[in-house]
């Protein structure tokens, strides 16, 4: 297997997860079925997914100088990345997230304190120029300060590095930034917020895709959960079917999809094949508890893919 190079810039959060029979009402205290603490944040999760899906990964992030930051360093050092660039600040805590997972569908409700993730400076980004230039793919999200994301995307553009932007969690971004991205990967909610078009099925996703192309976006993958994922490139659309799964925790599904997608594109796969693998990879992920800890291996995703196809 060809192991391409993926540079992931993004958030690290410490996740504190409570498994519930249902979500609590305002003012209500409920006994959790279980709880766990682990590494999270969209950037770190996607980096782990890209790594386990077969890529060589350089992760770039920022944490606080606190106990959660010590936990982050220990986790990232042991993950197996090719390289880690971890900036730190004493001004803010390490990002953290409080997560409820409830019900038979394992839906989640999340409160995030981004902390140090929102304090990445221009000087810190500039130090990452060689890593971005050396990568086949830059994968980033919107869980950091937009100024840093814009500067990183500009560096990738200057160096011919393929840029994937996962616009999650949603924050307003200028169309000029979207137009620089090679591949945008919103889910239905993010697509609705980007376009003002209510996306709830494949037909409405196609309408939203046209609106995004009109903003200058070259290629799109709109993830639609159990309905699959819509690929749209230069007006041509294809639907990648979702793989069947029995969900335990859907928290890391989007991160699994994006990391696996980046790994396959870096290895030279075409977009349709990469998206199909990413769909299989995400279906294995949701059958396990936790985000970073639930990311499957390349072989496990391939097994799911070949069992169904």
Automatic annotation (TrEMBL):
GO terms for cellular component: cytosol. The gene is rbsK. Homodimer. The keyword Transcription regulation does not apply. K(+) binds at residues 249, 251, 285, 288, 290, 294. One of its GO terms (biological process) is D-ribose catabolic process. Residues 132-159 form a coiled coil. Requires a divalent cation, most likely magnesium in vivo, as an electrophilic catalyst to aid phosphoryl group transfer. It is the chelate of the metal and the nucleotide that is the actual substrate. The lineage of its organism: Bacteria, Pseudomonadati, Pseudomonadota, Gammaproteobacteria, Enterobacterales. Belongs to the carbohydrate kinase PfkB family. Ribokinase subfamily. Belongs to the carbohydrate kinase pfkB family. Residues 5-297 form the Carbohydrate kinase PfkB domain. Its cofactor is Mg(2+). It comes from the Bacteria. Keywords: ATP-binding, Carbohydrate metabolism, Coiled coil, Cytoplasm, Kinase, Magnesium, Metal-binding, Nucleotide-binding, Potassium, Transferase. It catalyses: D-ribose + ATP = D-ribose 5-phosphate + ADP + H(+). Substrate binds at residues 13-15, 41-45, 143, 255. Pathway: Carbohydrate metabolism; D-ribose degradation; D-ribose 5-phosphate from beta-D-ribopyranose: step 2/2. Gene3D superfamilies: 3.40.1190.20. GO terms for molecular function: ATP binding; metal ion binding; ribokinase activity. Its EC number is 2.7.1.15. Signal peptide: none annotated. Pfam families: PfkB. Catalyzes the phosphorylation of ribose at O-5 in a reaction requiring ATP and magnesium. The resulting D-ribose-5-phosphate can then be used either for sythesis of nucleotides, histidine, and tryptophan, or as a component of the pentose phosphate pathway. InterPro entries: Carboh/pur_kinase_PfkB_CS, PfkB_dom, Ribo/fructo_kinase, Ribokinase, Ribokinase-like. Activated by a monovalent cation that binds near, but not in, the active site. The most likely occupant of the site in vivo is potassium. Ion binding induces a conformational change that may alter substrate affinity. This is Ribokinase. ATP binds at residues 187, 223-228, 254-255.
């Amino acid at each position: 297997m060809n192991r391409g190079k993926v540079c992931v810039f993004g958030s690290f959060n410490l996740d504190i997860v409570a498994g519930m029979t249902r979500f609590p009402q305002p003012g209500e205290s409920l006994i959790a079925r279980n709880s766990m603490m682990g590494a999270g944040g969209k950037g770190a999760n996607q980096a782990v997914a890209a790594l386990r899906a077969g890529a060589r990964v350089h992760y770039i992030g920022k944490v606080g100088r606190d106990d959660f930051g010590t936990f982050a360093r220990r986790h990232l050092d042991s993950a197996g990345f090719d390289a880690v660039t971890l900036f730190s600040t004493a001004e803010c805590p390490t990002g953290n997230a409080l997560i409820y997972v409830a019900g038979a569908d394992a839906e989640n409700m999340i409160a995030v304190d981004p902390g140090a993730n929102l304090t990445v400076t221009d000087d810190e980004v500039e130090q990452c120029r060689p890593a971005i230039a050396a990568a086949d793919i830059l994968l980033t999200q919107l869980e950091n300060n937009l100024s840093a994301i814009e500067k990183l995307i500009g560096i990738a553009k200057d160096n011919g590095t393929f840029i994937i932007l996962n616009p999650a969690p949603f924050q307003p971004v200028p169309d000029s930034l979207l137009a620089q991205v090679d591949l945008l990967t919103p889910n239905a909610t993010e697509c609705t917020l980007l376009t003002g078009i209510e996306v709830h099925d494949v037909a409405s996703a196609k309408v939203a895709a046209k609106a995004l192309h009109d903003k200058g976006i070259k290629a799109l993958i709109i993830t639609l959960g159990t309905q699959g994922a819509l690929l749209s490139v230069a007006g041509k659309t294809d639907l990648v079917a979702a793989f069947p799964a029995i969900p335990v925790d859907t928290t890391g599904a989007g991160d699994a999809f994006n990391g696996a997608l980046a790994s396959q594109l870096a290895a030279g796969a075409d977009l349709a094949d990469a998206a199909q693998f990413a769909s299989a990879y995400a279906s294995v992920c949701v059958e396990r508890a936790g985000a970073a800890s639930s990311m499957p291996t390349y072989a496990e995703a391939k097994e799911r893919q070949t069992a169904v196809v």
